Amino acid sequence: MKLTLTTSGLLDPRKLSAWSAQRRRAIHAAVAKGMAVGGREVREAARAQMRSAFQVRRASFVSSMQTKVFDRKPERLPALWVGSRIPWLGIHTHGGTVAGHMLIPLLPGRIGPKRFRQVIDGLMRSGNAFFVEKDGRVLLMAENLQENAAQLNRFKRAERQRSGVKRLQRGQEIPIAVLVRRVDLKRRFDLAAGVQGALPALARAIEQELGRV
Questions:
Q1: How many other C-beta atoms lie within 10 A of the C-beta of residue 1?
Q2: pTM (2 decimals)?
């Protein structure tokens, strides 16, 4: 995300160029320091927005949201970057469509992509994975076999909850996932709103550092 602040006074490019090189360097350094200090509040505001938008299970998810000051170009004023290293987070800020053949786990809760891949890989290696068409949907199924107990535990529990039975029969077919060709995602993470609320604090931090120049 790119933030743009109105530049005036010392920061007006027309006035900035009139200062001596030493003075310009001092102003540049002050803006960078102010962004670094005020950026912490921007970062926390963005993280608060993440907690509000998602069901957070891992602290590392929220802590992936960071701020960074870019100030290596002396001819340009510093810039503050706000973002996360998680690649799929961006689509939740504006919504969109993910296309392709995808397996959606049939579980009431979340399963991580790595663990889900392990489940599918284990079932396929043992030959206990097959597709069926039911009610217009293509489902990946597996039989309730002892050799796949580790992969099937969560899916067996989900099937017991769906069917209302206490015990599944040996060899019974268990739904694992549904095959889809596209997923439409609505916007759920308003990063801009969270960051904009922290901009006054960012501006104050920059002004404070400029006051020392």
A1: 16
A2: 0.70
